Amino acid sequence: MDDLELKYLRSLAHQYPTIAAASTEIINLQAILNLPKGTEHFLTDIHGEYEQFNHVLKNGSGSVKRKIDEEFGNTLSSRDKKSLATLIYYPKEKLEIVLQEEDNIEDWYKITLHRLVQITKRVASKYTRSKVRKALPKDFAYIIEELITEKEEIQDKEAYYNEIIHTIIRIDRAQEFIVALSYLVQRMVIDHLHIVGDIFDRGPGPHVILDTLSHYHSVDIQWGNHDIVWMGAASGHLACIANVIRMSARYGNLDTLEEGYGINLIPLATFALETYGEVNCDAFSIKYNTDYNTKDLSLDMKMHKAITIIQMKLEGNLIMRRPEFHMEDRLLLDKIDYENKTITIDGQKYTMKDVDFPTVDRENPYALTPEEEQVMERLRQAFTKCDKLQSHVRFLFARGGLYKVHNSNLLYHGCVPMDEEGNFKTFTIDGVEYRGKALYDELDHYARKGYYSKNNPTEMQKGQDMIWYIWAGPNSPVFGKDKMATFERYLIVEKETHTEHKNSYYRLLDNEQIINKILAEFGLNTEHSHIVNGHVPVELKKGDSPIKCGGKLLIIDGGFSKAYQGKTGIAGYTLVANSHGMRLVAHEPFESTEAAILRESDIFSDSVILETSNTRISVADTDAGAELKESIHQLEELLQAYRDGIIIEKAM
């Protein structure tokens, strides 16, 4: 035994000071290895649709309904099952309705509490008592543990449990107990949550989603391109700030910034009214939904145009500052022929929809006016000093990254950049070429520098510029296209210029050799591993399938965002992986939380079983199991050291 190992074992002996203590822990950990693995829930491309997100989280993509069916079978009517499910999803709101409608509330309490206890027993059965105990609500921890734990020593168990429930009702604690049990069921049906990117933009409530996630018991996040641009904005990067505001304006979601995060947009609104008051802004229309207040339309279009022109200037300066990005083809403001209302790109002339840009100096088109500089500085201050946004972005850095390897699954948003032959594309940073996993790691590293390197302004600026590149660069893993055609889509008539060509990766998704190459690049077994991929909506209407390469790769973006649902034909996919295998769930559009509560209208979900394990998958088969096995090995070494007299037991 070398000195380093002996030093570690002596440290471990402080925690387990006797043979008995070490032995007990070995037995405990060995038992945990044989429990069924916890259920993992995968969601992606939520895009601010907080009502549907919250509902899918509450129902566990149908997991709660399946548990109710398993527990009650034909002993409950479908109506009673639906009512019980709705109560579990929205206990406080449902109780308010029940209290108004039920004639005999005491009987309803008795029946409901018994049913909830049965469901709680079922969902808690595959976890250790210790893990369940940690999840119990503080106010009712002892009572719930009594109700869901078999007491072999009690002869009349039924009378014992009935008396507990009777007392809960008698002392007027039934409502609080129902709420506590419902939230516990929601928590226990999902052991761990994976968010495979794009929480922000398009929908109205990314801040609501992040509030929920930041309090969730176990979650990781793979950054999407729409997350990364908000992270750049929170760091104070002006081009990222302009992008965030432009997209919020475009989708009629400026309320997210103003009310959700308390960011003051009055400086931009004042500037837009003064500068674009008499300017045609038709090319900068708003894609709004039924919640949008159309009285704001004229002002929002002016703000939309103002921030878009500012964005184009800022990005032009950034591209010239970073020639290593090789994005000179995005420098378009200087290619405009104002007299003829045309633009020349790669020797080809195209028609401009709009050339009325009062702040653009034709001799120096990428220069911000003093007024634009003042507006952006005030916006930078607003973003960097917004406590709620900073808290959410720190959470994204703490729980997230550009990819994750977990339980034989590789999770990422976007693509692994490839050329047409399926070779990993390279991106050069400081003279060093990066590709594949190394590219992900380096970009992740620079993103963190862009937010945290406050004592090194040069590194921080470079990191922030790199965040912007991750958002829109042609070799960015989370973007995955040759260009972001913002300029063309707003301002050029000819639609052929609007096309954004996807990376070759997307053509190769059914090529097993390529998928195996990616899995091997990230250190995964090519026989039993999967890639879980977000970013590109699966167009079910056109016959597209989320299942690629015989099930080795799963694209689970099916249109959570309402902006995509006309295109996809559904309202998103989610993935559930439990001890029995993997299940892909396709969701129909969610009507509303109100309808779910009043009419008990759950999301209709159709699931496909992707894989079924012949033997139930246990904790021993997971990453957590590998860590437990290592702990057992170290404890066994400690046990031997005690028995050999190398380490002396401490007196108890």
In short:
The chain is of the alpha/beta class and 652 residues long.
Notes on the protein architecture:
The chain is of the alpha/beta class. Helices cover 50% and strands 11% of the residues. A seven-stranded mixed sheet has the order 7-3-2-1-15-16-17. Strand 8 and strand 9 form a beta hairpin. The chain is globular, with a radius of gyration of 28 Å. The model has no long low-confidence stretch (mean pLDDT 91).
Topology of helices and strands:
Elements: H1 3-15, H2 19-33, E1 40-43, H3 50-59, H4 63-72, H5 78-89, H6 91-101, H7 105-124, H8 129-135, H9 141-148, H10 157-170, H11 174-189, E2 192-195, H12 206-214, E3 219-222, H13 225-235, H14 238-250, H15 254-260, H16 266-276, H17 297-321, E4 336-337, E5 342-345, E6 348-351, H18 370-384, H19 387-399, E7 400-401, E8 403-406, E9 409-413, E10 427-429, E11 432-434, H20 436-452, H21 457-472, H22 486-491, H23 512-521, E12 530-534, E13 547-548, E14 553-555, H24 562-568, E15 573-578, E16 581-587, H25 593-598, E17 605-612, H26 623-643
Parallel strand pairs: 1-2, 2-3, 3-7, 9-12, 12-14
Antiparallel strand pairs: 1-15, 4-5, 5-6, 8-9, 10-11, 13-14, 15-16, 16-17
